[in-house]
Fold Cytochrome c oxidase copper chaperone.
Amino acid sequence: MLERLGLSSIMGSPSAQTEPEKPAATEKPKCKACCACPETKKARDECVIEKGESECGDLIEAHKKCMRSLGFKI
């Protein structure tokens, strides 16, 4: 029926409607870098202070991944 009304391309497929939206690569972040990903930032910072940067690679990468997911180019 949507095809008949010319709405199929507007409405999209049902599976497309249930997927969460991801920020576009060109979309600007909605917050400042200092306020983004507070959980991963705190864990990363504590690890670096206590153990040194060389021991915290996994936490550093987790924070970078979180930042990228919000649109920051890192």
